[in-house]
Amino acid sequence: MRVRGGHEIDRRTPIRFTFDGRVIEGFQGDTVASALMAAGVRLVGRSFKYHRPRGLVTAGSDEPNALVTTGQGAEQRPNTRATMQEIWPGLEVQSQNRWPSLSIDAMAVNDLVSPFLGAGFYYKTFMWPRSFWEKVYEPAIRRAAGLGALSGDSAADRSERAFAHCDLLVIGAGPTGLMAALTAARAGADVILADENTRPGGRLLSERIEVGDEPGAEWAARAAAELAAMPNVRILSRTTVTGAYDGGTFGALERVALHAAPGAAPPECFWRIAARRAVLAAGALERSIAFPSNDRPGILMAGAARSYLHRWGVTPGKRVAIFGNNSDIYRTAKDLSAAGVEIAFVADTRPGESGKGDWPVFQDARVVATRGRRGLSGIKLDHSGGTAQLRADALLVAGGWNPAVHLTCHMNGRPVWDEAIAAFVPAPGAVPGLIAAGAAAGRFSTAACLADGVRAAGEALEELGYSLRGRPDLPEAEDAPYDITPLWTVKAPGRAWLDLQNDVTTKDVRQAAQENMTSVEHMKRYTTQGMATDQGKGSNVQALAVLADATGRGIAATGTTTFRPPYVPVPIGAMGAGARGEGFAPRRLSPTHAACVARGAPMIEAGLWMRPSYFPRDGERDWRESCDREVGHVRHAAGVADVSTLGKIDVQGPDAGRFLDFVYANGMSGLAPGRVRYGLMLREDGHVMDDGTAARLGDAHFLVSTTTAAAAQVMAHMEFVQQAYLPDLDVAFSSVTDAWAQFAVAGPRARDLLDRVLDRPVSWDGWPFMSCGDVSVGGVPGRLFRISFSGELGYEIAVPARYGGALFEALVARAEDMGGGAYGMEAMNVLRLEKGFLTHAEMHGRVTAFDIGLQGMLSAKKDFIGKGAAARPGLLDATRERLVGLRAVEPEDRIVAGAHLFGETGSEGYVTSAGFSPTLGGFIGLGFLRNGPERYGERLILKDRLRRIEAKVDVVAPGPFDPEGGRMRG
Amino acid sequence: MRIECPHCGERDLREFTYRGHALALSRPSEGASAEEWDDFLHNRDNPAGATQDLWRHDPCGAWLVAERSTTTHQVRATRAVRGGEA
What we know:
The structure holds 2 protein chains of 2 kinds.
Chain A: E1 10-19, E2 22-28, H1 32-38, E3 45-46, E4 53-54, E5 67-70, E6 77-81, E7 92-95, H2 109-112, H3 121-125, H4 132-144, E8 160-171, H5 175-186, E9 191-194, E10 210-211, E11 214-215, H6 216-228, E12 233-236, E13 239-245, E14 249-254, E15 269-280, E16 284-286, E17 299-301, H7 302-312, E18 319-324, H8 328-338, E19 342-348, E20 361-362, E21 366-371, E22 378-383, E23 386-391, E24 394-398, E25 401-403, E26 416-418, E27 423-425, E28 434-436, H9 446-464, E29 497-499, E30 504-505, H10 506-514, H11 520-527, H12 540-551, H13 555-558, H14 572-575, E31 588-589, H15 593-598, E32 603-606, E33 609-612, H16 623-636, E34 639-642, E35 647-652, H17 656-663, E36 676-682, E37 688-698, E38 701-706, H18 711-725, E39 732-735, E40 740-746, H19 750-755, E41 772-777, E42 780-785, E43 794-800, H20 804-817, E44 821-822, H21 825-835, H22 867-870, E45 881-888, E46 900-903, E47 906-917, E48 922-930, E49 939-944, E50 949-956, H23 966-969
Parallel strand pairs in A: 1-7, 8-9, 8-15, 9-12, 15-28, 17-24, 18-19, 18-24, 19-20, 31-33, 34-44
Antiparallel strand pairs in A: 1-2, 3-4, 5-6, 5-7, 10-11, 13-14, 14-15, 16-25, 21-22, 22-23, 26-27, 29-30, 32-33, 34-40, 35-38, 35-39, 36-37, 37-38, 40-43, 41-42, 42-43, 45-48, 45-50, 46-47, 46-49, 47-48, 49-50
Helix pairs in contact in A: 5-6, 5-9, 7-8, 10-11, 10-12, 16-21
Chain B: E1 2-5, E2 9-12, E3 16-21, H1 34-42, E4 50-57, E5 62-69, E6 75-80
Antiparallel strand pairs in B: 1-2, 3-4, 4-5, 5-6
């Protein structure tokens, strides 16, 4: 019901939204919760397990009951706290976990059988038969017990992530946080003030409190305005700091545009804030008292009721009762009464206490029962003078305040029990650089909070070396003592609820203790207390008290469970914002990408690169036909392939040769300028890391190539080797992969093709196999290497990347005139298989130079990375799985990578690469086989049981085509 | 977690790649025994407390040694692998 006041709402701007299809009218500034309360809606959700009717309990992010779904389709957001969702015109809100409707929920039958669903029922009931768990029990439980659902549509990926740095992060903008921020800002520090609510002020917005000579809310607005005007202050509103991490890093979730219709602004932003110091001024959370039927809609926290009253001008009922164990009950009665709300009674659990007012006050009182089917209608009370049955439509509970210690526990800190306030307070220094202050540190009066904010900021500033100037004067404020006599539970018949979100009762906790789950962590897992999305913010301490009572240990000795980040649920879409698709794995495109796509080539991933698979032509029915044709181009005319994606590292300096000698297993310093050498790199453990070529462009200038996938790894490896082992060598290197476009030109007519694009004729006799030099193409300086990965007469020509597209088009057009053309990854693979050349399919990290028959490349004349380990006897054992070539015996049989090679003793090896060789007229492959090279000529059975392939294969030497290499070297 | 790159200053953990214990810097000389290589390659302590890690600052390519506590994740100091001071 709406009453006077409410400084968050603008009564001139009504706003309509829908709740389960029903149109609700609120005002600008309302939350879904305050608007529903104003409209008299009390039933807002059904509980997780028993589907009990539930209403609003809090006014903040700790709300356990009022979880709703907003939006539809890609914009659908389940488990939104109605207390945090501001309304906007056209907002669609749905209640959750009910069928067919919120008021008639068929699954409420769970509540009737609740004696069978108590603590540990999952573990006890659904044990047998085992096979039923996945197929019967779990799906049934998931249907019956649940939260909101996703639409199944791909979520609109519109959230953002952001990074920020500051001297001081102030978490919370209540009296403590505002004073801390003012103190630090006036001293010149770079300040970020993050606050969960729409506007700064914290509890000052929710109470009738004077600060100085003005209302607290006005003081807060003035302080915030001063801060907002300062260039060294950033205020993040609607921003919840969700986690404290190593090194002063904090996570924070900003609700950027959830308070408006979806538009251009991102709905949420996940911040990573690196703060040199931080002040935790997150305040405190009010807790309940566990009395029978304390979960009826209409029963909520007294502090929440004051928030609803002062912030939004609404009351939870027309005739409200108040029950509590501290002086907040009288403050609540006064505030509501002043707004014209009838106070049914005030029930004080303490004997001999009594505040003044025009309402009945019961002392030593206990609520022992409540009535009302879908909302509270009556209350039964035991008190010092007997019992009473009273009518009320709302019951406000004040069970005391728990400091919001959560962030101080995120790095394994344990809060400390403070008997004086009957609550856990942060352990000092639990998070390095984070100072808890104000209510979050257990100091509850407004005056204490204001002073503590100055103190905490002062400590932080001193550590940062700021001199304290312009320190704000402390305004006058109430300094009333916090007068609590803890009462956790009311012992009376009936179920008394602790964790409202997971439906945990005091009986469940006692039962856990009885079944020897006496450790707090065991109790938590057995009962699921505190394991819901609110992490038991409003119920954990009561549950600990019940456990302490049941075990006779006391609360301090019982201890707490571990609070973990995030403090509030963070959507994965916000935490991982921008990291979907290409944001997760960026695509690297070669200079020829557009030309390849224009030719219809399917592009496939090779690491982050996209490479052409094959170039289809009219009339070709499948990729194999295209591939076979492209192999023919190279074997019979001239083919052109883009090899720009291979890693290129430019190595320069007088000691470049010595450096490469140490990185490569074979020698490089003896290479003459103008020559190219194949090189093998090992890891220090003696296994092959990568292979490639090193071209000596000048005395002090090498160009090293790596495989496409290993380029980054090789670069990091070379940096490590130089910095760690060879710091005194005069050598420098840099990745130039993206700087050069490079094309393989291969085939019997390769020279003819190159002659057609080179500016000046080349004396081919002067370019023997494995030589290199400068050329000119269309007036552009380029490089030419005579190397071959196809086994044909082959060259690779390189030009600066921006000319790559043009050169590729020119080469391919001329090749096509000559009966050749472009070839893709598939043909490249077949060509190299025919020659027995290796890729990372073979150099998969578990093979040595010995295994691939390159033991002879390991230099005896010098030390190199991997030399020591490569000599270990186990790595030179002839029975190791070693490289072999394979040929299918029957022309129609396939060889597939991943298949096993079966001999007399079972699986004796495996296939790493395979393909159809049009040149040899059958399937060929490479693989590893025990004693491999000693077994050429053997016939084995190939089996792939996944793809149901079985074939006879002959073991042959790798590279059956032109084994002498005459075509390549000629 | 934040780590100080000797060249670039303090940066977020995600700019760094981890490589293991700084023992990898003490490479046995050529001809060392199999036992020495075994130690160098495979045997590592698992301390609860101070340790020395190798990290690479990916944007600048610098390798560095971080003195880190395995129990608190606190990075006490860093130095460049190449001739760097803490």
